[in-house]
Structure formats: C-alpha cells, structure tokens
C-alpha cells in the first residue's frame, strides 16, 4: 500500500504501525512529532496505530535551543 510521508510517496506492507514505520526509517520517536491525516498521534499510541493506504503523515523533528 502507498502512504505519503512529508510529501513523498512510500510503499509499506499492510499492517504497518507508526512504530514500525519509525523503526524502518531509523528514527527515534522520542524526538519526533507525528501527524497522521492532520491528527497528532502521541507516542503512547504509535504501536497501536496501524497505517492505511492513502494515509498522509508529517514527521517533524523537535529541536531545542535558546
């Protein structure tokens, strides 16, 4: 199935969760904000949120500074 991540299409297998996708991309979920179809998904639901064909994700890296 195809999803869009930060504007780019990606093919993923059916049954992929947000947590699976982050592992595939080698991203640390502690430093990210994830939005699926314009809905913010907190870290505690990443394993239980399964992606569907056509989902649009925005993955944003949190940056600290001063």
Short summary of the structure?
The protein is mainly beta and 66 residues long.
Task: Give the low-confidence spans.
Answer: none
Radius of gyration of CA atoms, rounded to a whole number: 12 Å
The largest sheet has its strands arranged as: 2-1-5-3-4
Name of the top-level CATH class:
Alpha Beta
Instruction: Give me the secondary-structure category.
Output: mainly beta
Order of helices and strands: EEHEEE
| Oligomeric state of shown chains | single chain
The tally of domains stands at 1
Strand content: 25-35%
Helix percent reads 10-25%
Please tell me what the overall shape is: globular
The CATH topology is Ubiquitin-like (UB roll)
- Using DSSP, what is the number of strands? 5
Q: CATH superfamily name?
A: Beta-grasp domain
State the separation between the terminal residues, measured CA to CA. Answer: 41 Å
Number of helices: 1
Question: Which architecture name does CATH use?
Answer: Roll
Largest sheet: 5 strands, mixed
> Can you give the mean pLDDT?
94
């Amino acid at each position: 199935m195809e999803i869009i991540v930060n504007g780019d299409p990606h093919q993923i297998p059916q049954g992929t969760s947000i947590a699976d996708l982050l592992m595939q991309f080698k991203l640390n979920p502690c430093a990210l904000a994830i939005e699926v179809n314009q809905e913010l998904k907190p870290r505690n639901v990443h394993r239980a949120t399964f992606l569907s064909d056509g989902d649009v994700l925005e993955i944003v890296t949190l940056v600290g500074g001063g």
